[in-house]
């Protein structure tokens, strides 16, 4: 695939080390429900980390905190050394520019063309010229296999195509971090493999840092440098995909994997 429009087309060794995301003692409650309980973890630049665990264990909540769609009750979150929480709104906005997210339900703007869905944020948030944004968007649409859909509206596309547009839209901001939240859960089964293959390509050919919540264990095995097993808002086991999937140490990990594999 053409890589000139990708966020970090060449894997640069200096970008592939050091901590990019850090959560320290993060607690999130919804009423009496403590969803994240003094959670600590970090993700190094350029790494692909997958969160697995039972439904309701707090995986999506972590991504929503990083997107600043939620606020933690306690703890600190930093991205590339910059404060996300606690921070001023201005500081948060700056950090947010470095984070792209692809949601389960695509979340495209229904009244905008495919091209405009992708150019909107680079122009309005990053101040990119319209011409440059259009050129980049066309390159990304080519990469995701939808070069001929610039003028289509999202409703005219299949779920798989809409998710490809959502991936292109996230990458158009050249984020350092890409958050993927069960991106194939809403797709018809025959469309899942194509979207996962696209993400495998992106994982292989860029040095973008990925934090991924997925129930697709083969995908997790393929792209992950590290897998974190969650239970009740805590990381109970972490390791390489080989270790977690082949030799899990924790009973809860074994139970979870035997239910989903
Ligand atoms: N906005 C909210 N208001 C109240 N409770 C919430 C809210 N968002 C999440 N929760 C609760 O927080 C808990 C964790 O939810 P979260 O979506 O993070 O889990 P998850 O591990 O991603 O689950 P799944 O795999 O099913 O998506 C659940 O008990 C959920 O009901």
The amount of beta strand, in percent, is 15-25%
Q: How many beta strands in the DSSP annotation?
A: 10
Q: Note the total helix count.
A: 9
Task: Give the strand order of the largest sheet, numbering strands 1, 2, ... along the chain.
Answer: 6-7-8-3-9-10
- Major sheet description: 6 strands, mixed
**Which regions contain 5 or more consecutive residues with pLDDT less than 50?**
9-16
Task: Explain this structure.
With 261 residues, the protein is of the alpha/beta class. It is built from 9 helices and 10 strands. A hairpin with a 2-residue loop joins strand 1 (19-30) and strand 2 (33-44). The radius of gyration is 18 Å and the shape is globular. The structure holds adenosine-5'-triphosphate. Adenosine-5'-triphosphate binds at residues 30, 33, 35, 53, 55-61, 213.
Primary descriptors:
six-stranded mixed sheet; ABC-type amino acid transporter activity; Ectoine/hydroxyectoine ABC transporter ATP-binding protein EhuA; amino-acid transport; about 260 residues; binds adenosine-5'-triphosphate; alpha/beta; about 35% helix; Ectoine_EhuA
Question: Care to give the gist of this entry?
Answer:
Pfam families: ABC_tran. Helix content is 36%, strand content 25%.
How do the helices and strands line up, and which of them pair or pack?
Layout: E1 19-30, E2 33-44, E3 48-52, H1 59-66, E4 74-79, E5 82-85, H2 89-96, E6 99-102, H3 114-124, H4 130-143, H5 159-172, E7 177-181, H6 189-205, E8 209-213, H7 217-223, E9 226-231, E10 234-239, H8 241-246, H9 251-260
Parallel strand pairs: 3-8, 3-9, 6-7, 7-8
Antiparallel strand pairs: 1-2, 1-4, 4-5, 9-10
Helix pairs in contact: 3-4, 3-5, 4-5, 5-6
The chain binds adenosine-5'-triphosphate (ATP).
Adenosine-5'-triphosphate (ATP) binds at residues 30, 33, 35, 53, 55-61, 213.
């Amino acid at each position: 695939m053409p890589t000139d429009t990708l966020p970090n087309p060449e894997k640069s060794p200096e970008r592939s080390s050091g901590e990019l995301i850090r959560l320290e003692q993060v607690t999130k409650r919804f009423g009496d429900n403590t969803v994240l309980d003094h959670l600590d973890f970090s993700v190094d630049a350029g790494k692909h980390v997958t969160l697995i665990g039972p439904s309701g264990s707090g995986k999506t909540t972590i991504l929503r905190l990083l997107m600043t769609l939620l606020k933690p009750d306690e703890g600190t979150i930093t991205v590339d050394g910059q404060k996300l929480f606690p921070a001023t709104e201005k500081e948060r906005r700056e950090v947010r520019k470095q984070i792209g997210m692809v949601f389960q339900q695509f979340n495209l703007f229904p009244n905008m063309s495919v091209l405009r869905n992708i150019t909107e944020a680079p122009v309005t948030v990053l101040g990119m010229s319209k011409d440059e944004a259009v050129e980049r968007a066309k390159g990304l649409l080519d990469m995701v296999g939808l070069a001929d859909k610039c003028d289509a509206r999202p409703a005219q596309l299949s779920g798989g195509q809409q998710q490809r547009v959502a991936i292109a839209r996230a990458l158009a901001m050249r984020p350092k971090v890409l958050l993927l939240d069960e991106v194939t859960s809403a797709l018809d089964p025959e469309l899942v493999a194509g979207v996962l293959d696209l993400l495998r390509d992106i994982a292989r050919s860029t040095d973008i840092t990925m934090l991924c919540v997925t129930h697709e264990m083969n995908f997790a095995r393929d792209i992950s440098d590290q897998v974190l097993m969650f239970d009740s808002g805590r990381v109970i086991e972490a390791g390489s995909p080989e270790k977690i999937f082949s030799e899990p140490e924790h009973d809860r990990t074994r139970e979870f994997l035997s239910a989903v594999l």
